[in-house]
């Protein structure tokens, strides 16, 4: 049982786009819906599959990945951007990253928190769909979304951290 060595294809941030859904209900007072973030890759499915595969050619599952936002400025400034990243929890390796408006991502995190508070979110507070040209490759139910300042400090009040989890 060893780790495989894979030469990783270069994937640029601009090769990815991010779209969120089921977040409006928080502001309108509607019925809770599990928020979904879709990260779409404009490239080869084979390349993306390789990135999302762990040791022994087994696809990484939800508890082997982390989703984060690293802010590029003041979180209270609506013009601030950030870098959304999906990483391998075991190795810390970067699986993919993309630039995004921080305000949009923080709005998503607030919706995921509200969903967890208003429902029995046994299947996670939000869903991540990773796709190639609109075709889902992986879908993860997640409970944690960590937000970091531009200095690398964890912003607990802006993050989605389930009760009982210590970081």
Automatic annotation (TrEMBL):
Matches recorded under InterPro entries: DUF5793
Top-level lineage group: Archaea
Pfam families membership: DUF5793
Name assigned to this protein: DUF5793 family protein
Organism listed in the record: Halarchaeum salinum
């Amino acid at each position: 049982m060893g780790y495989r060595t894979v030469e990783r294809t270069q994937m640029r941030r601009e090769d990815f786009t991010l779209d969120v859904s089921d977040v409006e209900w928080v502001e309108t007072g509607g019925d809770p819906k599990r928020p979904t973030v879709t990260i779409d890759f404009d490239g080869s499915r084979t390349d993306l599959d390789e990135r999302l595969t762990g040791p022994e050619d087994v696809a990484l599952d939800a508890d082997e990945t982390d989703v984060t936002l690293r802010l590029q400025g003041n979180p209270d400034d609506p013009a601030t951007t950030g870098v959304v990243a999906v990483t391998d929890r075991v190795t810390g390796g970067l699986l993919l990253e993309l630039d995004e408006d921080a305000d949009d991502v923080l709005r998503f995190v607030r919706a995921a928190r509200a969903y967890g508070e208003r429902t029995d979110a046994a299947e996670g507070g939000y869903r991540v769909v990773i796709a190639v040209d609109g075709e889902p490759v992986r879908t993860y139910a997640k409970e944690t979304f960590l937000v970091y300042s531009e200095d690398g400090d964890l912003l607990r009040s802006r993050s989605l951290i389930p009760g009982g989890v210590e970081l």
